[in-house]
Amino acid sequence: MTPAGRIQAAIEVLDEVIASVRDDGPPADTIVTRYFKHRRYAGSKDRRAVRELAFRAIRRSSDRPESGRAAIFGLARDEPALLDSFGEPRGPAPVAEDEPAASAGSVPDWLRPELSPLVSEPEWAALLERAPLDLRANISRASRDELLGEFEGSAPTSISPWGIRLPVDSRVDDLAAFQSGLVEVQDEGSQLIALACQPSDGDRLLDLCAGAGGKSLALAAAAPAATILAADSNRARLAKLAPRAQRAGAAIETRLLNPPHELDQLDDWREGADMVLIDAPCSGSGTWRRNPEGRWRLTPERLERLVAVQERLLDIGAELVKPGGSLVYAVCSLLSREGAGQIARFLHDRSSWISEETPIAAGRLDGEGRLLTPAHDRTDGFFVARLRRPC
User: Fold this and answer.
1) pTM of this prediction?
2) CATH code for the domain in which residue 262 is found
3) For a tag on the chain, would you pick the N or C end, based on fewer CB atoms within 10 A?
4) Does residue 118 sit within a domain?
5) pLDDT attached to residue 39
6) CB of 286 within 8 A of CB of 332?
7) What is the average pLDDT score of the chain?
8) Which DSSP state fits 332?
9) Which of 61, 77, 80 is nearest to 17 (CA)?
10) What is the mean pLDDT of residues 365-374?
């Protein structure tokens, strides 16, 4: 592909991403992969260049552009060399007079008042930086130090004792240590949430929003003799856990839930869990480094729905914790309503519950929890709080 052809391909990819955002379709990474499946003529350098160009345009715009062309034209205003390809053969059409360009920005205007006060404007640029690849050592089978030499360019993460950090764009899925279950791909922030649960052998641990089971696997590695139940209402995501658990040698029970009947379906766990982890559905504002088009998907109406779901999950979790047991609440969000605000409401409604110091050496105090951010902690953004039910 010529440089002009790569720019035109990026415009086409972005048109598909914008349509997918509008229709609540697949993420940008999936769209890029699908785009090149039908264009076998594109070599690896072409695919890499187009992907990089498309994601630079996505990161640049806090609001959804009108079109892929508007997104690329906006990027070209910042990088004038790109303008040379407009009007070239196989490239985009020449620039028209007064042609609209996507505006630049990090955080959508409507979301800025929703951010935690800790996330001030100097931190916004870090929300869109490219993220490294973090691995979690399966400490039930090998220590982190034993595994560091298996990965080129690796270094221990600075906070999690389980973490291994690799450079941006690293791949591990074809390496023996990954295929044999000695490591899992997991951001350091997610590892710290599992550490905040303080799992112990013999405990009954319930991961109420397990998804594909990343945190359940971390709990199982830290406490192999614990009883762990991973529950979720998304069949497709939960189905991914069984092969991952088998690869890791972890014993984890799964249970598919059918809202709004979760408590009935978890009746055998009512007031019986030593710890309930609620890694709740959220805005994903803490993961814009990995999914920058997430800013385009979020709307005020969607945020309202997510906050309501989080409230309901906290109420369910409170019924499942045994007297003296713990509830750990986490969201990959930097928005106050999803983090500190949720815990303030919970404690207001349950004044006998006790807020405990979150046992991780990271983040900053945010209400009754801790907030981790890319700029401050070099992790994805997470809010996490730990609460104890009175005996």
Assistant:
1) 0.94
2) 3.40.50.150
3) C
4) no
5) 80
6) yes
7) 95
8) S
9) 61
10) 97
The three state secondary structure string of 199-221 is CCCCCEEEECCCCCCHHHHHHHH
| Domain range enclosing 221 | 188-388
Judge whether 229 and 253 are in contact, CB under 8 Å: yes
Distant-in-sequence, close-in-space partners of 358: CB < 8 Å, separation ≥ 6: 196, 369, 370, 384, 385, 386
Residues 222 and 173 grouped into a single domain: no
User: What is the tally of structural domains in the chain?
Assistant: 3
Would you say residue 273 lies in a domain?
Answer: yes
Are residues 317 and 268 part of one domain? yes
Share of the chain above pLDDT 90, in %: 94
For residues 218 and 194, the answer to whether their CB atoms sit within 8 Å is: yes
- Read off the CATH number of the domain in which 172 is found: 3.30.70.1170
CA distances in angstroms from 199 to 202, 212, 246, 258, 273, listed in the order given: 9, 19, 20, 27, 12
pLDDT level of residue 131 (50, 70, 90 thresholds): very high
Spatial CA neighbour of 69 closest among 90, 36, 93, 47: 93
Catalytic site positions: 332
CB 32 within 8 A of CB 54: yes
Q: Is there a single domain that holds both residue 174 and residue 198?
A: no
Assigned domain for 115 exists:
no
